[in-house]
Amino acid sequence: MTQTPQIAPAKSDRAAALREFWHYFSVNRGAVIGLVVFALLVLIAIFAPLLAPYSPDIQYRDAILKPPIWDAGSDPRFWLGTDPVGRDMLSRLIHGARYSLFIGFFVVSGALFVGVILGVLAGYFGGWIDAMIMRVMDIILAFPSLLLALVLVAILGPGLFNAMVAIALVLQPHFARLVRAAVMAEKNREYVTAARLSGAGHLRLMLVTILPNCLGPLIVQATLSFSNAILEAAALGFLGMGAQPPTPEWGTMLASAREFILRAPWVVTFPGLAILITVLAINLIGDGLRDALDPKLKRS
Length: 300
What we know:
The chain contains twelve helices and no strands. The protein has 300 residues and is an all-alpha fold. α4 packs parallel to α7 and α10 packs antiparallel against α12.
């Protein structure tokens, strides 16, 4: 009986915070559109085997480089045409959504995990630990991200997994620097001092007391890094260092079709549009999250 009055206000506070978040997020119409598009992409990726009319790897030798259904000479079986070996473009695009979203999730999760640990250690302890970690981050940031990822993949070997590991290593300094700055701003505040005086250890102070108050900028950075991961994975796939054929990854689809860009432009146009729409939707969501989570940017 004594806990009910405490639980109810906590629930109402969370509900009020969610309503406030949605209010500021929904003010940005582009962010709402991006969220709808991204939700559709997630559903397409989840139900790809049910939505795709054909297997992405089946080759129809009697329908090589067929144009989309609205062009002359098209085949009504293939709405978006076929690729140079007779595979259905629509089916490959639908299955490609799985790869792109998985790449973004894996890369952001890895970069976030490593970056948060390094950033918290650097910001909390300072001194030589901070100097050592930040100098390594500065060295990584000194190289163009795609070039460094390309070098790492060349060392590790071509392949989708190696490409994701390389991109995660390239992106994690952004999280480390962001967390370091947030932890340095928070660690001397009164609530941290009170927790320290009450006997909280370093691990509890870092992960339980300080880190939850740094989540706002991290969420925004994770969203933007998601789109960067998809772009860089597509670039590595286009260069032949990412996913390898016949994987229906959008960058790999572009690479295998580039020699047909004049003869059959649809084999390049549709994967490029898929990358463009996905990245644009995620960036719009990132803008909305920034408006909703940053008090300085909240609109009246």
